[in-house]
Specification:
Layout (H helix, E strand, L loop, with lengths): L7 H8 L19 H19 L1 H16 L14 E4 L3 E11 L2 E8 L3 E5 L6 E3 L5 H14 L1
Antiparallel strand pairs: 1-2, 1-5, 2-3, 3-4
Length: 149
């Protein structure tokens, strides 16, 4: 047998299994971030920034809001006229009695054979003008597309 050389401690390390690394110590509650403290700090910082910029910036932001509100939307051109024959989903065929623009939207008063007079907003409901040659075919086409879907 060959004789082992070296200090006896080194030989014991060779025989014993490798030691595990110590597990990290759990984070103490004092070291964990406190959500309420973080929120308070952020609120203080925001308040300091607002105070540093002064009331002029608040006034500027309010006046820009007012200017935005005062701006008129793009003028809406009515697409339908009294007397137009239309198809409207879900009501079917009807005749436009009046058309007006209100709050940036065209509103139609339409007479439907089954429902009477209803107010329709074409930006909400599907409305399309029926040309003279397609009066009867329009409703049929729409029903066929409903059956398919």
């Amino acid at each position: 047998k060959p004789a082992k050389t070296g200090p006896p401690q080194a030989r014991e390390q060779e025989r014993s299994p490798p030691q595990r690394k110590p597990e990290p110590a759990p984070v103490e509650p004092e070291l964990r971030p406190d959500a309420s403290a973080i929120l308070e700090r952020l609120q203080r910082q925001r308040q300091q920034q607002q105070e540093a910029t002064g009331p002029a910036s608040k006034q500027d932001s309010n006046s820009s809001l007012r200017r935005t509100e005062e701006r008129e939307p793009f003028p809406v051109q009515p697409q339908f006229q009294a007397g137009d024959h239309i198809f409207c989903r879900p009501y079917g065929n009807g005749v436009v009695r009046t058309s007006r623009v209100e709050n940036g939207h065209e509103l139609l008063e339409v007479e439907f054979p089954e429902y009477g007079r209803l107010e329709i907003n074409p930006s909400v409901s599907l409305v399309r003008r029926i040309e003279k040659g397609e009066k009867k075919g329009c409703e049929k086409k729409e029903r066929e597309s409903d059956d398919e879907g």
